[in-house]
Amino acid sequence: MAVPKRKISKARRDKRRASNVKMTAPNIIECPKCKAPTVSHRECGECGYYHSRDSKQKEA
């Protein structure tokens, strides 16, 4: 019966298993203010709106 000569480290084992993990696509919603597509739980890239407040500074 085949027996490994040395213990395989956790790092090496986890590197081998890392390629089998399936990533999920981010949840895309539309901004309630400007209706642009944005990732949920992030500020809008177009208008800067997030959770009832504007985070982008107005340019003068």
Automatic annotation (TrEMBL):
Q: Where is this region: Disordered?
A: 1-21
An annotated GO cellular component of this protein is: ribosome
- The organism sits in which domain of life? Bacteria
Asked if the Swiss-Prot or TrEMBL record annotates the protein with the keyword Ligase, the reply is no
The protein's matches in Pfam families, at most eight in alphabetical order, are given as:
Ribosomal_L32p
Q: Which UniProt keywords apply?
A: Ribonucleoprotein, Ribosomal protein
| Regions of compositional bias (Basic residues) in chain numbering | 1-19
Q: Which HAMAP family match?
A: Ribosomal_bL32 (MF_00340)
Q: Which family does it belong to?
A: Belongs to the bacterial ribosomal protein bL32 family.
Q: What name appears for this protein in its UniProt entry? A: Large ribosomal subunit protein bL32
